[in-house]
Amino acid sequence: MIPSVDDHAQSLAQSIAGKIDGFFYRCLNDKDFTMVHLSSGFKPLLGYDPEWFISTRQSFSNLTHPDDIGRVDAAVSAGLSERRNWRISYRLRDKSGNYRPVFETGGGYISPETGQLAYLDGVILDAQQEAAQGATGSSRTQVAREIGVATGEILKTLKTLRLLALNARLEAVRAGEHGLGFSIVAREMVDLAAPSETSARAIERLI
């Protein structure tokens, strides 16, 4: 069985997440920064199970070091008001109670349907790991480059999907009443591509 484009995009996204010392997130713009998505790197970095953290609506703000909360809130507020990404270093408490230095870059996600802010999306990297390896800004540049390449592959796949959908529509017109199946396939392919492209563009914008 040939994997669907959505499966392909999902596997690529998982591959990207597995190549960074950190995790992707999507959260609500509330006082707790309530998470709705956390990539697999959340547990290796902080020790918490991502599904448990989301399903029990744990407060992400409570993980932030008390001395850093004001700076984080200010950075996010400024980024949202100025319609730009924020970049900030701060500390997060892991499951053992220790605070780990992290670097975050994030931005607001505007819903194409409503034109309103729907979520906050971002990447949080392990700054402690970089320091231990004597890393400089070049390591972050390399991570961003690798993410960019993989994201580009997702977008190429989605472009192919749209071309296939267009061909299916043409076949549907050519086949008349017998082309209903082509028409349904075309619509499903477009519906499949839309959310995957939105996610890929969000990652591309963040890096």
Write a brief caption for the model.
The protein is α+β, with helices and mostly antiparallel strands. The chain has helices at residues 5-17, 42-46, 50-55, 69-81, 127-132, 137-175, 180-206, and strands at 22-27, 35-38, 86-93, 99-110, 117-126.
Lateral strand order in the biggest sheet: 2-1-5-4-3
Distance between the termini: 34 Å
Topology order in helix (H) and strand (E) letters: HEEHHHEEEHHH
- Rg result: 20 Å
Largest sheet, strands/sense/barrel: 5 strands, antiparallel
Number of helices: 7
The chain-level mean pLDDT equals 76
Uncertain runs with pLDDT below 50, 5 residues or more?
Answer: 1-9
Helical percent range?
Answer: 40-55%
Strand content: 15-25%
Determine the structural class based on helices, strands and strand pairing. Answer: alpha+beta
- Overall body shape: elongated
Number of strands: 5
Question: Can you characterise this structure?
Answer:
With 207 residues, this protein is an alpha+beta fold. Helix content is 53%, strand content 19%. The protein contains 7 helices and 5 strands; from the N terminus they run H-E-E-H-H-H-E-E-E-H-H-H. It has helices at residues 5-17, 42-46, 50-55, 69-81, 127-132, 137-175, 180-206, and strands at 22-27, 35-38, 86-93, 99-110, 117-126. A 5-stranded antiparallel beta sheet has the order 2-1-5-4-3, sandwiched between helices. A hairpin with a 5-residue loop joins strand 3 (86-93) and strand 4 (99-110). The protein is elongated and about 65 Å long. The relative contact order is 0.14.
